[in-house]
Design goal:
Number of helices: 6
Distance between the termini: 19 Å
CATH superfamily of the domain at 15-164: Chloramphenicol acetyltransferase-like domain
CATH topology of the domain at 15-164: Chloramphenicol Acetyltransferase
Helix content: 25-40%
Low-confidence stretches: 203-209, 213-223
Order of helices and strands: EHHEEHHHEHEE
Structural class: alpha/beta
Radius of gyration: 18 Å
Strand order of the largest sheet: 1-6-5-4-2-3
CATH class of the domain at 15-164: Alpha Beta
């Protein structure tokens, strides 16, 4: 909380029927070059919607210009991407980010949801065994890894968007033993200029929900 002020945030609930419609719309708008990678996931479509909406909102208030280049960054769980893969219960943190870019004008143009979703899908696929091993080799040559800057966070207040996905973390199913019981309520932290995608909540009939952190000055741009 900068200066002791609570960060504003907004949470957007997405019902299952809307999620299915969103994926269908993104798939129908795929660029022709995506024929070699025909699949667009629901998660790709969700992320594309967030990226386009955030940048359209910032464009509307004059925070960015149509000619600017906007970037989208997201960490990927590298456990399953390595060959051989690390076990699912590996204790270390192997979250590695990718970053993609597009002009603001192209991103927010009508019928470009599929193009954005395809770019995000390609970004996810780029974090493979070769990418991860090259990244590890690079870090081993750095005298102080604490000085490594995550460029996914660059321009995060203007043209950049950083999104963390928790869609595979079924926190509602967590059990804490006889003393604490099942998980009933979760409280999530709010980062400035940061978006989260959360998993489906079956009891509400929701396909997922999105929490987006706003600005420390009390405004919310990008929801």
């Amino acid at each position: 909380m900068p200066d002791g002020k609570p960060l504003p945030s907004a949470t957007f609930l997405i019902r299952k029927s809307a999620v299915a419609d969103l994926k269908a719309l993104a798939t129908s708008q795929k660029p022709s070059m995506s024929t070699t990678e025909p699949y667009i996931s629901t998660h790709d479509a969700d992320c594309a919607l967030i990226w386009r909406t955030v940048m359209a909102a910032r464009l509307e208030v004059g925070a960015i210009a149509p000619s600017d280049t906007t970037t989208f960054g997201m960490p990927i769980d590298g456990r399953t991407q390595l060959s051989p893969p690390l076990p699912a219960d590996f204790l270390g943190n192997l979250a590695v980010c990718f970053k993609i870019g597009e002009s603001v004008q192209n991103l927010v143009a009508p019928e470009r949801l599929g193009a954005a979703a395809f770019q995000i899908h390609a970004g996810v696929k780029s974090v493979d065994d070769t990418y991860l091993k090259n990244f590890i080799a690079l870090l081993q040559q750095v005298p102080d890894v604490g000085q490594v800057f995550i460029d996914c966070l660059e321009n995060i207040k203007t043209t950049g968007l950083f999104l963390t996905s928790w869609t595979k973390f079924d926190y509602a199913a967590l059990k804490w033993g006889d003393r604490f019981g099942d998980c009933e309520v979760s409280k999530w932290w709010v980062y400035e200029w940061h978006c989260h995608c959360f998993p489906p909540v079956e009891i509400w009939g929701l396909g997922g929900f999105i929490d987006a952190g706003g600005n420390s000055d009390g405004s919310f741009q990008g929801g």
